[in-house]
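S1.2 Input.
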Amino acid sequence: MSYDILLYPRQPGQTWEQVVEADQQDGPEGTQADLDAGVATFRRIEARLREQLTEPVETWVAEEVGGDVYGELTGLESGLQVELYDRSASVAFPYGGDTGRDDLHDRARHAVRIVGEETGYEAYDPQRGRTFDGLFDDEAGHTEARRIAAEGGAGGADPDDTGYDVAPAGATVAAGAGSAADPAAVSDADGTTDGEDAPARPDPRQNPRTLRRRGYLYLGIGAILTVLGVFRMTSGDGGLLTWFILGIGVIDLLGGLMMLSLAKQMEQGADLRLPGMRPSNDEGGPTG
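S1.3 Output.
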């Protein structure tokens, strides 16, 4: 369970609903030049984030053409996660983490600003259905995470949790809810209000393209860990750590294959979603 800020290229006059729908459409196959440029952009983002963050971070970058994820950075203490895709980016933080909320919000705001400056993208808050204005309406999510943790469940502090689980009760609210200003009083540069932009948009995390992104990412990580585990084992190190690395690698490989399979089936019209995925329209159909 995480609070996500999404960043997209946005043309004058485009509503957020149009922007999100455009991102869900498959684009042309990326080239080596696209990959090199994307990784270079991610490295600039990473360098600036390392200057801002006071916590250790873990990063991953794409090495082969074919996926649409260029890089991912995760704060090991806060769970703050920054991902750069071929046509979008995201900044997310888990509900119920150990980091204080004010500090976490500051880190996320800095990350959104840096990603926006390096990519030229605009930031969108899908929880509120409007342009991100630096505020986070996450009280309900943190409250639910604390309740789950108190009952002995997973409170959502896992930085690998990217929002595929059931959203906490009340975490996704109508546009303008909470302490933010009335959306009718907040206008974009194109003259439209954010309250008008996305009253019934699909969740961008619940579509085949996003599943493929995550699938390729997990396959890459799983392959690295599996190779490392096999290397350690063939070198005579058959200890618990070796088996742990190998097990995680295999699990990531299986998870990646499952996500790619689901993405393919959803594109073919099958009503399949990961556990906890909610229908994105009134009929409950897939968003692909």
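S1.4 Remarks. The chain has a mean pLDDT of 75.
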